[in-house]
Amino acid sequence: MRELTYVARHSVEWREAPDPALRSGREAIVAPVAATSCDVDSAILAGHGFLDPPFALGHECVARVVDTGDAVTTVATGDLVVVPWSINCGSCGHCRAGLTAHCTAVPHTAMYGAPIGGGWGGLFSDLVRVPYADAMLVPLPDGLDPVAMASAGDNWSLSWRLVAPHLKSRPGARVLVVARGSIGLYVCDIARALGASDILYVDPDPGHRKLAESFGARTAETLEPVRHGFDLAVEATGRVDQLAQTVKCLAPEGICESAGNHFRAGELPLLDMYLTGVTLRVARDNVRAHIPDALALAASGTVDPARVVSHVLDWEQLPDALPEKHLKPVFVRDST
C-alpha cells in the first residue's frame, strides 16, 4: 500500500509500506474514503512542528471497514466509520473516565499522523490498522455525508467540546472566537445552533470572516480587547500573543478554551487573569468521548459542517494539493 509521507517543509510524497494485517481479534483494517487536513497539519507542513520528517501524515478521516478480527462486535466489513485521531483501548482507567487521549495501554500521545507515541501510520494512507476497533471506531450515522464529516475524528468533535458543554451550563453566553482555520468556523456554527447570544469571530482572512458571518457571527480582522466582553472564548491560532489578548476579553469567571498548538513559548497576563478569575484550559482533546454527540448534532440539521469544506479533491491529488494553502480540503476515493 501507499502512505502519504511528510518529507520536508511544504513537501509530501507517496511512499510504499507493507499492507497492515490484523494482529489480534480486537482489530480492524479500514480504508479511508474521505480524509482531510487538521489545522495542525498546516503548521507541520509549514515547518512549525517539533518532529523531524519523514513520517506518515493525516489523522482525520471517514473510512470503510475492510476486515475485522473475530472479537470485533460494533462494526462490520463494509461499514462507514469515523476514525478518532488518538489510539485508545477503551478499557483502562483513563479510557473509562473519558480520557481517551491518555490511554495507558499504549505509549503516551499515541496517535495517527505523527510518531510521538509510536508508529501508527497516518490516515492519508490506502489502508490503516485500528488496534482497538470496538473502542475506537464510531459508525457514521445514516444520512451524513462522509465528505462533510471527514473531520469528525478530530476538529469537528473538538469544536463541539469547546462550546457545547459550556453553553449548556451558561445558556445564552457571549462567545469570542479567535482563529485561523476550520476549528473556529465550526465553533461559530455550533455556538449559533446552541443558543449563544453573541458571537465575535476574529480572523485576518476575509474569506473566513465572510463564512463566519453566514453562521451569524460578527467579525473583526484583529482583536481589540474588550474588558469583560465575553463569557466564553475559544482561541485556535497557536499564537501565545493572541491567546493573551483573548483572555483579556473575558468576563469575571469567564472560560477560555485554547485549541491552538503552541509550539513556541510566550507570556500570559497572569495578574489580569487572576483579578478577573478566569479559567484557561489548554489541552489535547479526548475526542473519542465526544464523537457520538458531535455526530448527533450534525445529524440534527441545525448545523452545516459541509460549508467549511473548501475543496473536494481526488485522492491521487494529495501529494500536490495538500501543501497548498486551503481552509479545509477533503480528499476522496472509492474504496469499494
From TrEMBL:
Family annotation (Gene3D superfamilies): Medium-chain alcohol dehydrogenases, catalytic domain, NAD(P)-binding Rossmann-like Domain
Record's InterPro entries? ADH-like_C, ADH-like_N, GroES-like_sf, NAD(P)-bd_dom_sf
| Limits of the Alcohol dehydrogenase-like C-terminal domain | 183-297
Looking at the keywords, is Zinc present?
A: yes
Kindly give the Pfam families that the UniProt entry links to this protein: ADH_N, ADH_zinc_N
Q: Which UniProt keywords apply?
A: Metal-binding, Zinc
Which segments constitute the Alcohol dehydrogenase-like N-terminal domain? 27-141
> Would the keyword Translocase turn up in this protein's UniProt record?
no
Top-rank taxon? Bacteria
Query: GO molecular-function annotation terms?
Result: metal ion binding
List cofactor names only: Zn(2+)
Task: List the coiled-coil residues.
Answer: none
Task: Tell me which PANTHER family the record gives.
Answer: ALCOHOL DEHYDROGENASE (ZN-DEPENDENT)-RELATED (PTHR42813:SF7), ZINC-TYPE ALCOHOL DEHYDROGENASE-LIKE (PTHR42813)
The name under which this protein is listed is: Alcohol dehydrogenase catalytic domain-containing protein
Per the UniProt record, the lineage of the source organism begins with:
Bacteria, Bacillati, Actinomycetota, Actinomycetes, Kitasatosporales
